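Q: Predict the assembly, please.
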Amino acid sequence: MINPATIYRRGENRTNILGTVVLVATLLLIVLFAVKIDGFATLGNLRVIVSNSASLVILSCGMAVVIISRGLDLSLIAQMVAGAATFSILINAGLNGLTAFALTMSAMVLIGLLNALLIAYAEIPAMLATLASAMAITGFFRFAILRGEYLLLLDKSNPAVALLSSNLLPGISVPLLLMASILIVTWGLLHYSVPGRITYAMGDNFQAARLTGLPVRTTTLAVYVFAAFTAFIAGLVVSSASGTVDFRTVTNGSLLFDVILVVVLGGIPLRGGRGGVGNILVGVALIAVLRNGMTLLDFSTQIQDVLKGLVLITAIVADRFINPRDMETDTVGDL
Amino acid sequence: MLNRTLGKLRSVLAAALVVTFAISAAISQAQANPSIAGKKVIFVPISMGISLTEGWVRRMKEHAAIYGYTLDIRDPAFNTQAMTELLAKAISEKPDVLVVHNPTVQLLSRQIKQAEAAGIKVLQINLQSNQQSSAFVGANWERIGREIAQDIVKSCGDGSGKSGKVAIIPGQLTAADSVMMNDAAFKVFKEHPEIKVVSNQASDWEPEKARQITATVLQQNPDLCAIFGHWDVHTMGAGAAVKDAGLQDKVLVYATGGGDNVTCKAVEDGVLDGVWSYDADGQGRDAATLIDLLLQGAKSEDGKMLSIESPMKIIKAGSDYSPSQCWKM
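A: Predicted assembly structure:
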């Protein structure tokens, strides 16, 4: 017997329990690090934490929107590096920043559309479609465009690169500004735009959304194009900061892990339909504080990976208990 | 009469032809050793597409063309699992010489042993495994680690008026070069208690990770004196962080690498302050020579590894600097 009460009682607040738990854990961690590490609780360190997580926040916005629509984009990092590589090749060839941006943006829209076509029209599961496109993108770039090279070096004196890593106002750098704008845009799109609302409906119950007559396929196109856009912006931030475009970021895979970790930790359930910008901020806060503290404590990379893995497992298990699957959410082919 | 003269002329010409042919054959025999033509060499690098391996292969190919042996490259593209599979396949093809580039001291050691047991001569290039084989060509990591550490002690130690704080950025903690350089460097630092290693975190050879680590470390230690990066490519990310913090005049950024023109540009731009270059171009030629010799049956008398140590070039900004210290692809 289905008890209607259990369905009825599912409110937004229940999903946010994980977010709250993570928030409390983050605060405890901040207190712990502040006591243990000299120089942790300083304004300068806060600035480092925020600027080091700019690209992570931007990527997480893209991933969050995809996951809310009950999708998954495993090609996000490949797209990020491909976008940064295209942009760098164009400006290295002497194009001005604006033209290079416009050209790369159109290429990114194309990649996003291709992903979405596979998912919405060919009806291939998102995980498989984007895994395949990630490999195709990386392989294509390494083979045809970089001719086997792994690294692309950027001239930091190029005006476009210099602008991207400069400070607009003292203490407010362009990456920070980009991060803030993407957060605001994501929030606006999710809450006030029609495709945004449809995204929630799709994540909540895809079949119902479709049967109601909502344009689920066109919305899927919009969702994956938005993800491609965030990937490109994150690529610009990363490559202008370090002066390199590095294809090993894709093959090492730890960044993709971090992005999914942020979304899940923030309390956005992997089956979609819930969550928002607030959840992303909570997730990033924990990861960024953890990463910063572990670096300051001089933990080795391996130990850092182990700890992050444990955190993700804990979060997923907690997610299972807090958001148990029921009649409303359980579907075949679910993640 | 005419016929007889023509006949004589013909025989003289024929004799001359025979002699010329014999001489030219003798000369060509002296130039190329025909006994190694047609032999088979396989190279399994960590990855192609980086100047280091591309530089080596360029020289190896030149030698293979001179002597007429074949050189096959099997590129695992930084994937260690693919690397062991490619190596297994290479061993099963029974080449005469196998060239391997060890990502860690442990990963390929069993396969190197297996190849040597099957009669394949294994040349290890630049990064050594803990398994001995026929030959090794590459940098002396102990020396690089020691010399960079000594330079850091000179610039940051007693009497320099600096904090003595040092950050080390290895590639991977288990990579042969990182293990040996860290051992050597810590040995030097131990004798100088004023030197304090405040961070020793691997970057996975990625510039962006090195940049983030450095930004964090600089925040906590703005009086950092030196950074020792284990590869010039990822250390450029650390250099970018130092530059962004406006500390490029205060923090020394040292690294080691293959020394192509990108390295020189980084030194010119002030991203790196000093690079201990093992000259990948020269290493490529050394490796190629060693392959030629191994194919001709060279081995050491006591059965130990044949070994060629790459000479060092120290590339530093200042009056001694010249862009000719770097090579170009």
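The beta strands of chain A are 151-153, 167-169, 172-173, 244-246. The longest strand of chain A covers residues 151-153.
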